[in-house]
Amino acid sequence: MNKPLSVWQQIAVAPHRSMFLIGALQGVAAMLWWVFDLAGRYGIAGSATAWSIAPVWAHAFLMMYGFFPFFIFGFLFTTYPNWMNAGKIPPRHAFSASLLMAGGVVLFYLGLMMGKPVAAAGVAVMLAGWGIAVYALLRVLFNAPRQDKRHPAVTSVALVFGWLGMAAYLLWLLTGQALLLDFARTAGIWFFLLPIVMTVNHRMIPFFSSRVLENYVVVRPYWILWLMLACTAGHGILLLREAHAYLWLADLPLAACALYLSFTWGLLRSFRVSLLAVLHIAFAWLGLAMLLFGAQSLALFASADDPVWFGLAPLHALTIGYFASMVLGMVSRVTLGHAGQPLVLDRLTWLLFIGFQGSALIRVLADIVPAAARLAPDLYLLAGLVWLACFVPWAAHYIPYYWRPRADGKPG
């Protein structure tokens, strides 16, 4: 009779488990820290705390490089072998990468209180873990049989840009050069996160839809993916050149592509199956976000007065509405599938996902509705609290799957 695996062995037995576990915990920790800072900074509760790094740039780092990557790596660890009919990611690579990235995040938090050198050490440790994860994925990519590798090739390039963006952030901490920070924040969104999430959606949303919707026709042209990726890169390059008035040249075509795919992929039909609907709802935020970016840029292009339209609403429509909602939807599905559970979204997860949309809406409307200007700080804090109110129960619901054996008795 086989000896039962320990909790640590269960977490390490499948490559996605440790990444998803840490990502769930970090989603709670990062937003708790942000809510605490907002409450003190705006005098809502307590007083402002002096951090070694400006809170806005610490928040940006924690979300771009210290939250989403755990879920991205965990997902790609499961899909690369499936996409390319190749060998699985060795658990030791996934587990060591997870521990290094988690340890780096902890050091970064300590550095916020103890000083930039400690935070920089944390980023360096995260870079080491990231490097191991990328190495493990590239081994699969290069050693897989000859077949269609377009999707994993794109995501691999984006992962390298993410590593470079984090490296730029480390150098900014050490040197204070503003150009490095500009590259880090631009690369994190436009060269790393958006290309990966769009590429995964292009591959997976039509596939998942075809599995559950009757008479579903898969529409997945590659030309539209290349156009969307070109627009994403174009936005990032224009940002680095501070050509904000011309961003609409990239944003509006990307919005048109995203809205076309939402319609073609069957947004309305997806509501028949909640596990599928969460993915389509999350993807719909991409079209809305890029419309907001485009309108914001056109306002700059049309006016010499340099008006500020929408503030950070487009950015949060993208990061909370699209990225974070997609994490909840996609990770819920992967967790259930790899835990040997039925692929059915329970009522709790559906309600938490719908509630989570409120966090995105509150944060977006706070910068759009003129009447909300006076209440903006309170709305920023409210958006964070709604995030926590939905994300904490979601994390508590799914985390135990990462240290339990599969329900169907299969390995992993």
TrEMBL record:
Residue ranges spanning the membrane: these are 20-36, 56-81, 93-112, 118-141, 153-172, 178-200, 221-240, 246-268, 275-295, 315-336, 348-373, 379-403
Superkingdom of this protein's organism: Bacteria
> Which Pfam family is one of this chain's hits?
NnrS
**Keyword annotations of the record:** Membrane, Transmembrane, Transmembrane helix
UniProt protein name:
NnrS protein
Q: Which organism is it from?
A: Sulfuriferula multivorans
